[in-house]
Amino acid sequence: MQTGTSMKETFNLTEAHIKMVCAYNIRWNDNSYDGAPEVDPKRPFGNSDWQDDLCELLEYEPDSEGEFTDEQYRDVTKLFESGHIALEIILQTRSFVPGKYEREQYFGDWKLVN
Predict the structure, then answer these.
(1) DSSP-derived 3-state class of residue 48
(2) Residues 44-78: pLDDT tens digits?
């Protein structure tokens, strides 16, 4: 979105993003340099079936056969793929407030705008 001569980046932080980020399986990765914390890439929520984990976390109802639907999997995949931005906003703002956030494109701190 362009505002005047500057480019703005926006993101809608939802309650679902906050639930997901709070459930991340954080570990220490010492494979390079001096190490760093990371979300476990194989088991981001503790199990290797992250889509089912996320559906359960968000309290989605399975179908009559006890399985989650393709639509539910699409929803959680989209949410999961935006998790790095949600985490960045939560860490930069030091808060867990849902809403519309904005920053200068490619740099700057996220700010709640609504």
Answers:
(1) coil
(2) 999 999 999 999 999 999 999 999 999 999 999 99
Q: How far is CA 33 from CA 26, 29, 40, 41, 100, in A?
A: 18, 10, 18, 18, 36
Burial 84-95 (b: 16+ CB within 10 A, else e): eebebbbeeeee
Which whole number is the average pLDDT over 108-113?
Answer: 94
Beta bridge partners of 29: 36
Do 98 and 14 contact (CB within 8 A), yes or no? yes
Tokens of residue 49, six digits: 């079936």
CB count in 10 Å sphere of residue 68: 18
Which residues, in sequence order, are bridge partners of residue 112?
A: 101
The encoded tokens of residue 64 equal 């009559």
